[in-house]
Amino acid sequence: MKLLPGYLAFPFLILGCKVANRTGQGSEALSVAATKSAVQICPKQETIATSSGQSVVSCEELYPKRPYVRPAPDDLENKAKASFAAGVVISYFGSVRSTFFVDRHGTKYAAVDAQGKNVNFATPGALPAGMQAPSNAYLNLIYRVTGKIGKTVKDPIYGNLETIRVADAEPIISITGCAMDSALLGTWEGTVSRRMLQPTGHYPFTKNFDEAREEPLQMTFTKAEYLWNLMEWSGEGRTDFEAYKLTGTIDNLATAAKTPEDKTLPALDKLGAENPFLGAKDNSVELYRQTNMHGIGFDNHWVLTYPSGSKDLTINGMSDSIDLFTPATLISLDVPERLFAQLTVRPHIPFRGNGHVVSLTPTDIGRHRGECEK
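^ thats the sequence. predicted structure below, dont judge the formating
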């Protein structure tokens, strides 16, 4: 399936991916989820109990067309008692880890308290117990959110947001790590900053790359291999969410490459001393999710490795947040906005501000859905 740049799709089939512990749960808990599963949310689904004992519907096969996951209908007629399916996004900007919900229409809701202030995801007890906040449980769950929708506010990063006083947020659908990660196998297109012939500034603030001069970039990821179970805020691995490492190549590093639309991209090596990956020994790259990166609960990122030997770069770079390609995109009726569909990666410290920026969007993915190696 081919997509326009900036769009994300998950036309995939998930088979054989372990998501949660299915044992040791009472029949009462499972009966609640059985009621939920009366709706055909996915072509192949089953009721399971998560590691925390919550009953959810596990989607092990998704629809080939949007929406790929199809929760029961929303009820937004009465804003005082609204009920809708949504994924969760946490703001990584500012001192408050604001909690946002994103529904199937792409509408974003900011959870607020009685005073109208954003609810801090990191504050224990500030959100309904079903969300297990603060934790990373939200990274593979869809919730049924109920509450009172208020006024529209403007966020400098996330744009227009509806406010909501959340009465409850119950997990209803889980999505496996294999499903989410293998769906991204395929071709990604974007840009990378060109290297400067004359760097400016002094270490550790040296500017080696010019963000204003972008070069076309294409990567293809061909394999999803089990990496680890995502870490919890506490530092422990989650038993119900595996993460897979995508391995691939920079297609136009040493030679020109053809895009899925048959456009020719010039080889970056042709730039000589201005090559963004000057010194690279090969064109190999890896992409994966990492949570609790520096022993900090909310320090969650996408990680992209750079070709070995690349000058003035750390071994890998990271995105600002992990919220790209969130579960909310799976229930979306339309293509998600660029905020949730474009990966932007910068090097680690001490090269964080050296001007090297990789921006990527999946353009031809989903052909290897559910193909995960243990």
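The first helix runs from residue 27 to 36.
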